From TrEMBL:
A Gene Ontology molecular function term of the record: DNA binding
Pfam families membership: LytTR
Protein name per UniProt: LytTR family DNA-binding domain-containing protein
Domain HTH LytTR-type positions: 146-242
Record's keyword annotation contains DNA-binding: yes
Database matches in InterPro entries: CheY-like_superfamily (IPR011006), LytR-like (IPR046947), LytTR_DNA-bd_dom (IPR007492), Sig_transdc_resp-reg_receiver (IPR001789)
UniProt cross-references to Gene3D superfamilies, sorted A to Z: 3.40.50.2300, LytTr DNA-binding domain
Keywords, alphabetical: DNA-binding, Two-component regulatory system
Residues covered by the Response regulatory domain: 5-118
Length: 250
């Protein structure tokens, strides 16, 4: 069964909780991120290449923002417009959004929305990434090359350029040499730890692995943990649970 990724953009905790509860009955839809304003929603959808965006009308500053939303979200991302009045539904359909949900939303209405989304998504043309996957497979990549999808592009990252990796659920943030902003990659931290173990990476925290030779200084804290300073000046934490990874140093 194909699994679809979903972003929820809503400032109301009650709405977000209701959506997550309703989604529990649909295992092929996974909520991967929450957004708190409409521009952040667009950014997350593009970065994570999300299949679906649920967005509340209250986050949009004006009706012109609907046009921007429709234009800047990827063509393959289905948008569900959330509102409090049936009169707003017309705006959703004028911009060819997948559906409109009136809150509070009952289970039957939500299930119809999911059915519509499934139909649209299963009929979508292949994403650019999928279309060129065969080309990627032909590249002479090695175990030291990481293939990353990034906003509709394919990036080939040399693992020797990775300084440290932070966990973010089913994603990791790759912090690279000479790059200020991390690169988001869909893989678990545990999988990355296994992949990078032979390249000198160690786990120092439940959500952090780091290249050992990039560590410049360790400083004990009052809690029994350590403050880790990297050669680039960035600071991380070494928790007591992972002190054994520094055997021979501390």
């Amino acid at each position: 069964m194909r699994k679809f990724s979903l972003v929820i953009a809503d400032e109301k905790e009650s709405n977000k909780s209701a959506l997550k509860t309703l989604l529990k009955e649909h295992e092929n839809f996974e909520a991967i991120a929450l957004a708190f304003d409409w521009s952040e929603a667009i950014s997350i959808v593009n970065t994570m290449q999300a299949d679906v965006l649920f967005i509340n009308h209250n986050l949009l500053p004006n009706l012109d923002a609907l046009e921007t939303l429709a234009q800047e979200c990827p063509d393959y991302t289905q948008i569900v417009y959330l509102g409090e009045s049936e009169a707003e539904a017309i705006y959703a359909f004028e911009h060819d959004f997948a559906d409109y949900l009136l809150f509070p939303c009952d289970r039957n209405r939500f299930n119809k929305c999911i059915k519509k989304l499934s139909s649209r998504l299963n009929n979508n043309k292949q994403l650019p990434f999928e279309n060129i996957q065969s080309l990627i497979n032909q590249l002479n990549t090695t175990d030291q090359t990481l293939i990353v999808k990034d906003s509709g592009r394919i990036k080939l990252i040399d693992c020797n350029d990775i300084v440290w990796v932070g966990g973010a659920g089913n994603y990791v943030e790759l912090y690279l040499v000479n790059e200020e902003r991390p690169t988001l990659h869909r893989e678990t931290l545990s999988a990355m730890e296994t992949k990078l173990a032979d390249l000198g990476f160690i786990r120092i925290h439940r959500s952090v692995i780091v290249r050992k030779k990039c560590i410049a200084e360790l400083k004990p804290t009052d809690s029994g943990d350590y403050q880790v300073t990297l050669r680039n000046g960035h600071q991380l934490s070494l928790s007591r649970r992972y002190k054994s990874s520094m055997t021979g140093i501390i």
